[in-house]
Amino acid sequence: MQVDLLLQARWLIPVEPESVTHENYSLVIDDGKIIDVLDNAEALQKYQPRAVEKLDRHVLIPGLINCHTHAAMSLLSGIADDLPLMDWLQNHIWPAEQKWVSEAFVRDGTDLAIAEMLRGGTTCFNDMYFFPDVVAQQAIAHGIRANVGLIVFDFPTVWAENADVYLSKGLALHETLRHERLISTSFAPHAPYTVSDEPLRKMRTFADELDATIHMHLHETRHEVLEQQQKTGQTPLRRISDLGLLTPSFMGVHMTQLSSEEIEFYAQTGAHIVHCPESNLKLASGFCPVAACLNAGINVALGTDGAASNNDQDMLAEMRTAALLAKGVSGNASAVSAMQALKMATINGAKALGLDDEIGSLSIGKAADIVAIDLSDVETQPVFNPLAQVVYAASRHQVSDVWIAGKRVLNKRQLTTLDLHELRHRTEAWQRRLA
Ligand SMILES: CSC[C@H]1O[C@@H](n2cnc3c(O)ncnc32)[C@H](O)[C@@H]1O
Ligand SMILES: [Zn+2]
Question: What's the CA gap between 254 and 144, in Å, rounded?
Fold first, then answer.
């Protein structure tokens, strides 16, 4: 049988259907999909590939899914550091956004983040930012998968005047993007402290009608929880639950403040958590009790958050931080194993986005979203355990090749859909303006 491409790898970690590492294994790709996963020798007997790629020093893993970011904020990386969330947001980030955010800013900032993400093995990002139409357009142009946030605030910004306008623009954009192969959409109310009850109720109704997900910052800091409790007698989590938002189509981002009772309660709802350990550590927000959440059966995905609070878009690093932090805070070295960390960055992200039929593992029938990591560098030798080298030692500079829906977007470290030289010029121009 003739097929488009055969990837012959030294190691292959499919994540699903089995948590194993195969040695000398091939992925067979046709029409943008994985059609077989089998031993190298068998693959050559069974298929006549139009192209063969030998990856004999490499491990193949599923494309990494960055389940929470604000891509265009890459242009704000380093403008305000070493500050707690509300000081950072209210006194630095929001004033800068008010002054600078435009369609051109979002186009160039999103391109900068996409270049960084592709070079680091991220094949899908879940975004929440102004001008989501531009975010979608840039993702399509550069061949990366994106879930675009239909943002809502209860006050005017550069994108809309009031909650109803945010919602109507979001619904129109959802309709425009409905048939885009690499794009999905999600309602994205910013946070409990910036969106009132009525628009949240409306979003629940729209999300149900359109079978869409909802993506929201929630319980990010102790301050957020205490302030709302003092004002209303309720935690933000209880309020969001009373408004009917907590269902399997909801992603609560951060969730650093959770009691054991709240973990049990959240698990019952089927809602997902997106853990952003590096942003939480840098803003000193706390951290999500991931080991306890996973044990309770909550699906926990991983995100970097924007580069103004991280300060990068490096999902390999985020995986390592998630695994190490969970062990450190639980006092249990088995908490968040290397396989669990890889799952959080792949299949769990796909589940949170409702895309697990399509992406998140190297399984037959799924899209060919694949990352090759070269483990021959001294930094990742010897390779007794490829999975441990990926999670605990590899750096994003070892990501050699990336395919999304079968298209090669990184070829031996070269981006195929973005010109880095030209991107650097655009970024430097923004730096001069912002300075
Ligand atoms: C609705 S557009 C996104 C909005 O969120 C701001 N933001 C970035 N990071 C965080 C965070 O960790 N918590 C809360 N809000 C954040 C971003 O600057 C935009 O204004
Ligand atoms: Zn965020």
Answer: 24
Last residue of a domain, one of 352, 387, 421: 352
| CATH code of the domain in which 278 resides | 3.20.20.140
What secondary structure letter does DSSP report for 337? -
Sign of CA dihedral 391, 361, 357, 185: positive
Nearest CA to ligand 1 atom 20: 94
User: What angle is formed at CA 386 by the lines to CA 385 and CA 390, rounded to 5 degrees?
Assistant: 120
Residue 150 lies in a domain: yes
Distance 306 CA to ligand 2 centre (A): 6
Residue 252 contacts residue 266 (beta carbons within 8 Å):
yes
42 belongs to an annotated ligand binding site: no
Residue 68 annotated as binding site: yes
Q: Which ligand is nearest to the CA of 305?
A: 2
The verdict on 251 and 337 lying in the same domain is yes
Full residue range of the structural domain in which residue 120 is found: 66-352
pLDDT in tens, 317-372: 999 999 999 999 999 999 999 999 999 999 999 999 999 999 999 999 999 999 99
- Residue 162 is predicted with a pLDDT of 98
Which residue from 118, 51, 108 is spatially nearest to 415, judged by alpha carbons?
118
DSSP H/E element including 141: helix 132-142
Please give the tally of structural domains in the chain. Answer: 2
**Are 34 and 75 contained in the same domain?**
no
The domain that contains 19 carries what CATH number? 2.30.40.10
In a domain, 359, yes or no: no
Ligand 2 mean position to 79 CA, how many Å?
A: 16
Q: Name the amino acid, one letter, at 280.
A: N
Q: pLDDT tens digits for 53-68? A: 999 999 999 999 999 9
Q: pLDDT grade, residue 125 (50/70/90)? A: very high
Paired sense of beta strands 399-404 and 407-411, if any: antiparallel
Measured from the CB, is residue 309 less than 6 Å from ligand 1? yes
CB 327 within 8 A of CB 299: no
pTM above 0.90, yes or no: yes
**Same domain? 231 vs 348:** yes
To the question of whether residue 305 is assigned a binding role by annotation, the answer is yes
Neighbours of ion ligand 2 (CB under 5 A): 305
From 93, 157, 223, give the residue whose CB has the most ligand 1 atoms within 8 Å, as the site to mutate.
93
pLDDT of residue 401: 99
CA of 158 to the centre of ligand 1 (A): 14
